């Protein structure tokens, strides 16, 4: 579990001073002292309780997630997401460290803070039998069953099969819940806002979720069956009744270092000592252990004035010790300037700490670090404890058992904000912030689709793009890197995970038709010999959309269409041409009256204009109005009524392909409006998206389309194998930076450099997309999460559906032809036999 020592790390912080100053925070004020006295009595009564119900360390839980921990104390818990830290660049690490430091410094001395990281095992009965996707009307049940089987097989391959949760709990003093609510709300808003600065999603958990987190600690491996309805049906029943274990033994087989709860054995350990330097991966190495465990840090801020006074008293005591040593040395005839090394080092560290507190925005905290693990037997528990202790020792951490204090320690593990264990030391802001709660990257979002397995743990990578702040995204990779395979798999993910949503694909290579057919979708082939057509003048019939704003967007679309066919489009359309096109688009709608105009109407209006430039524009449009390329000069005869629609463009030339894509984008925009009114999300996949960055007018149109789409539940994915060309455009770079989803497969050296610069990838992250990786491997960027993925997808019906390797597809076609011929020959012989019975 050791980290690569060559990796760049955030600056380590000295921690040896902390052994000098021990003790708890002073209570200030009569009110605070009264609360502390009540808390002391409540804690004593709780630890001596005979019933399991009375032992659990809170008094009341409210539906909104606020808990009355003890009389006069209330707490709330925020769950926050994972982000990429361990593999991030040094400057990114330093920014995360700075944000966490400001988060801890935010809390006042009258608040208590608890950081919890829980590795919870996936239930054994769920491994191998989990239903990832349900049957839907448009997809064959056999394909869905095969997909579920494949994912369950891969679930078994996971190193840990653990779900990781991160909680931040804060407790404040108040007379009652009404007085505590505004205090907790203010803290919650500030905490969530601070964590958002490092792209870490945070949300308060409600009462049921908080009880679930506690139930997983006091009753590990038991099914959580709580509901508020049970409390209303049975008078006198409390929330603790539904999570309290039936049996708790704090001396199983006479041992004092563990306990038993409903047949499961657990042990809580304390972080007692640190090495001379505190590194940012110490805690992560423990969290990464593939065992069920919970790591909890209790952090009690000390008022700055009290902290300064404490350090000054320590310095005064040291000065007195130095004077005594010097006087003794003079009496014995020794050199009085020679001091004992320990005293000299302690003095230097105390002076350094005083400087930190005065001049470097550091504060002092009372710190307690605890690690809890559990197993089905004492033997297995001892092995897990040995693993924790061994990893800790390898990282210069001293972890000890809490003999005869397991009852206090278990209550301290609950996400309630109250520490019941008197094993503490003092740490500064930086020393606490250095203990990063972010370990190996995992991504497992409820309701999402499968994107591969984590390269680090083998666990499934499940991403729900709808949960991202900006679900727009890109999929990029060299030919043969697995890019098309990944996109096809995500399309099926979308169809299965969101049965109400619609999917549209722009297919310049004609490679998605088989997948679309398997989803009962429609293939719209745009070609000179096709009988399908799309009219670029179409407007949506959604009420309130055929207005000036939509006309303005339609004008932008025609500027882009005109730019795509004009030689000077690469330099941008002349202003005179823009004015003429704008005038003629509006005139075409006016002259058409009640019907939708066509390109011929637009052409006719252009010819009627007095300017020479108008006749030049008309001449360039003439080929799309007359002759073989006039199939866009018709009223639309296609709809997007199917859940999956593929716009096949592979029979169009390069110029015509861009024209067709722009026309299809207008059709998708109209459908997007209609779907938005129905509460339906529209998913759009654009292959060879780099072709839309050829001309300034097209770029401007597509950027507006991208920005507008996010407001109308459009989730657009651009797919390209030429990243450098696309990213040379400022608009494209901004689109990437404003999108929270990016799937990068193998990149060429030039493309890799472009992504490293744009996304500020670290050397480690850049290695996940270099030339050495296999097809299907890469880096998934989803919000603040960056996960290295791999995917060895097994052969079968789904593999054949996703596969784009030419040699394997050719082999499949040969087999299909052979099988068809074999069946035809067999059928012919059977017919012959019927016609001539004597044969």
UniProtKB/TrEMBL annotation:
It holds the Pfam family DUF87. This is DUF87 domain-containing protein. Residues 1-12 have a biased composition (Basic residues). Gene3D superfamilies: 1.10.8.730, P-loop containing nucleotide triphosphate hydrolases (3.40.50.300). InterPro entries: HerA_central, P-loop_NTPase, T4SS_component. It comes from the Bacteria. The lineage of its organism: Bacteria, Bacillati, Actinomycetota, Coriobacteriia, Eggerthellales. Residues 1-46 are annotated as: Disordered. It comes from Gordonibacter urolithinfaciens. Residues 475-539 form the Helicase HerA central domain.
